[in-house]
Specification:
By secondary structure, the chain is mainly α. Helices cover 72% and strands 0% of the residues. The protein is built from 18 helices and no strands. The longest helix has 14 residues. It holds the Pfam family PPR_2.
């Protein structure tokens, strides 16, 4: 893709055809997505020398390229330089990467400041921007701030999407506030959106971790039977782990059998979860039998495997 774009660009110039801003943007975007920051910056500088003025899309591509390469401060420097020049009108595509980069760097206060400043430049936060910030606060364990942003989003008339609800369910379950997670999971369904396998996994795991396994199983069955969503390995591994932790090893074994029945290949985490369940339930012989199955099946044990295996006296 990138090589083809480069070839076309060079061919264009060699025939005396002057590339326009859209052509430059196309190649800049390809460089940004490929992580080729040096090439991107070289081309960005070349534009001005060829009297092809960069537009908002150009600047957004360059800022996004900086963020993708971990150079958030350079992206911010460019943003503030452009703003101070007075000719630049930022869009949601300007703010998305900047807020995301700051959030992922743990600089949530700065991300929120940038978010709050959007309206000063006539840019209204959209669903994607809210999702980035809610996710940032959620991943940092700041569930109250995430919920507050969600309520503000709804009040501002921005309709939450599946990503919004999934992020909220995830962060609430992560801090043990599973009832609130369930509330938003139900609200998601009532709003006419369809939860996907990721969203179901989050709430099933949240319920499982707090030993609300009947409810977890209900949602597992709802997902399969009522919604027609195929559980993935994460779904099964989560149930096996949480059943095992609760001492319900027979149920964990049934879920493992289900994995085989549907033709999914287990992974090291599947076996580790089973071994852990049997070890905790005082069934060392079962734990070692699973270990043998794992090794003979060609799966490589990891440190977690050996940590879960009971001691042999």
């Amino acid at each position: 893709m990138i090589e083809t774009a480069q070839e076309l660009f060079l061919e264009m110039k060699s025939t005396g055809c002057i590339p326009d801003v859209a052509t430059y943007n196309f190649l800049l975007d390809a460089y940004g997505k490929s992580g080729k920051l040096d090439e991107l910056l070289e081309l960005y500088k070349e534009m001005s020398s060829h009297e092809c003025l960069p537009n908002t899309i150009t600047h957004n591509i360059v800022m996004s390229g900086f963020v993708k390469s971990g150079s958030v401060d350079e992206a911010l420097d460019l943003y503030y330089d452009l703003i101070s020049d007075g000719d630049f009108t930022p869009t949601a595509c300007t703010y998305g990467p900047l807020i995301d980069g700051l959030s992922k760097s743990g600089r949530l206060y700065e991300a929120k400041q940038l978010f709050e400043g959007m309206l000063d430049y006539g840019c209204r936060p959209n669903c994607a921007i809210y999702n980035i910030l809610i996710n940032g606060f959620g991943k940092a364990g700041e569930a109250d701030a995430a919920c507050k942003l969600f309520k503000r989003m709804v009040k501002e008339g921005v309709r939450p999407d599946l990503k919004t609800y999934s992020v909220l369910v995830d962060c609430l379950c992560m801090v043990g506030r599973v009832d609130e997670g369930l509330h938003y999971f139900r609200e998601l369904k009532e709003s006419g959106l369809d939860p996907d396998v990721v969203c179901y996994n989050l709430i099933i795991n949240g319920l499982g971790k707090t030993q609300r396994l009947e409810e977890a199983l209900e949602l597992y069955n709802e997902m399969k039977n009522s919604r027609g969503i195929t559980p993935d390995l994460y779904t099964y591994n989560s149930l096996i782990l949480n059943f095992g932790m609760a001492g319900m090893v027979e149920e964990a074994g049934k879920i493992y059998n289900e994995i085989q029945r549907v033709g999914l290949e287990p992974n090291v985490f599947t076996f580790n979860a089973l071994i852990r369940g049997y070890s905790l339930s005082g069934k060392p012989e079962h734990a070692y039998a699973v270990y043998q199955t794992m090794v003979t099946g060609g799966f490589s044990p990891n440190t977690g495997t050996y940590e879960q295996l009971p001691n042999r006296d």
